[in-house]
Specification:
Length: 722
Amino acid sequence: MNMDKRIETNNLKINESLYDFINSEVLKGIGISKEFFWEGFSKIIYELSPINRKILDKRKIIQNQINTWHKENKTGDFKLNEYKLFLKKIGYIIDEGKDFKIETANVDPEISTICGPQLVVPITNARYALNAVNARWGSLYDSLYGTNTLGELPKTKLYDEERGKQVVKYAKLHLDNFAPLISQSWENIINIELDEKNLKFFIDKKNFTTLKEPDQIKGFKKYENKKINELVLVKNNLHCRIVIDPNNKIGEMDKASISDIILESAISTILDCEDSVATVDAEDKILAYKNWLGLMKGDLEAKFLKNSQKINRSLNKDIELININEENFTLKGRSLMLIRNVGHLMTNPAIIDKNGNEIYEGIMDAVISSLIALYNFDNKNYKNSIFNSIYIVKPKMHGPEEVDFTCNIFSKIENLLNLPLNTIKIGIMDEERRTSVNLKECIRSAKNRIAFINTGFLDRTGDEIHTSMYSGPLLKKGEMKNSKWIKSYEDRNVRIGLQCGLKGKAQIGKGMWAMPDLMAEMIGQKIIHPKSGANCAWVPSPTAATLHAMHYHQVDVHKIQNEIISTNQNENIDNLITLPLLNRVNLSEKEIADEIENNAQGILGYVVRWINNGIGCSKVLDINNIGLMEDRATCRISSQAIVNWLEHEIVSKEQVLNAFEKMALIVDEQNANDENYIPMSPSFNTIAFKAAKDLVLDGINQPSGYTEPILHKRRLEFKNNK
């Protein structure tokens, strides 16, 4: 693969490998000539790039105005009304228009009517991507057995019979909630039979009970005589498959021969080209696009060793069943796939324009991911959207003008690819402050193609810090969650989404559970998301998806949404723009040191893998050796938090540098068993260590506090020095 050679065509200089991949692996299969495509792609680039630059210039202008205002209004007391008037004067807050309802059509049920977990997975890892898409179905038994949901994990790899009994008991108690029987618990059932369309649950050889709600019966796997080998029930639009197999080791020990309970889990999956990946050049982008192509065609595979066994992972097929009338039907075997493009900020060296500038990566992502999605339109075995809709999640947009621009990109792509208008649906990440304060108008800008809004509270916190950098020292990172703005932000997102008619047409999503090993804690806390009226929420793994699915059995999200709509309550914007200032809190030296070290450790643990290994999202051990899911959003928070305290002299540069060196030793120790790991100590002069320092020492100058410019630069430096 030649990453240096370029092909010149249509006023573009295209990396040869990318050019060949598009021509030979993408275009040939869908009957679009390379001449037509590259001419059209070039036209889009040259029409839209000036608008993209203008948008980024506007971000700078607004941020400078805010910085100046804060510097000139340091009176010790935050004057909310004056601040609000100022934000309106500079166009940061715009006037809301009349009420309206979105008009998005051809939205798949996984987005419009089914409430459930959503996975986000790096598209550059084929194994993870396949696992996520296949996580539409997950074993409740496995998810309970292998996590801390039932306490400490088993201490041996051999089957722990006592643990198994706990799992079965927990799962059957859940069935009592999911599909209650008349006057009996699922624990007492010894046999399940279908007799002349009547489903009987026997408690002994003669006596039986039935479901309280027989309409929950969806169907069965094909069976002989009265013996059922798989029963499918449904609640709140989510399915549960009860597998009956007396020959299975687990089924053999069960009174009713139930060998597993399989829950419909990850209803949708976001294949991520953004925060969870490290794609800095043509080589990286080709890998991302190839995996997306494999998913759209249905032929993506991942071969790997697991417990010394060769595994070949591929996409699940749909599940063939029969209903109670012995009619055939299928359930989808895979998550609905969305793809998250990058935002408007970054460029990529994969394609250079006639002026020698890298093209905007967001435009490139949109064109190529939409082009590849055409493969799925006629794919009968691995169909994604039943309507041939393309779902693109767009992150890091600042206000309605930027949403308008994204919709303009999509319109031009639809024209290029001869697609019906609004084929490409948009997912708006509500994760930048100027989008939050203008959410209603952002939705209006996309009212014909919006399929998704989501509170990306991690990036949103990063933007809160950077936008308000000069207002004064801000709260510690962990205390941000208790501030006025974040509650207002989460509540307003749901309320405004419902007021704009998203119910039954689009997703209203909530953010990630960032501790993948702490599933008991997740089960205890994450139920707040469906209870808030959100019809999906992010989870970090297929196992987490299965466990989180139980929350949507317990909570009727549609009912809660109707209750919120009926209140017709509009929250004042004041709480949303109230700054999370430290005010007159006097922190001890230890509190300050702990906060800086905690942030520094998180930055280093994440950045060292990003720079050295090209891993954009990973489980990073924190100071207490708890595994946390880290990506660019969490890195943005940690770096900007230190920058803010540096700016306001809560800490000195020397303290920060000492913390980085101290934490580098800890991160090196945490990775000591990795033979490919490059230690940052004792030189403290590696490219990764420099990148981590840059994020703080030059963090105040980074656009919106984003980490991408520094990370991309240092990753390319590392790759070029290998």
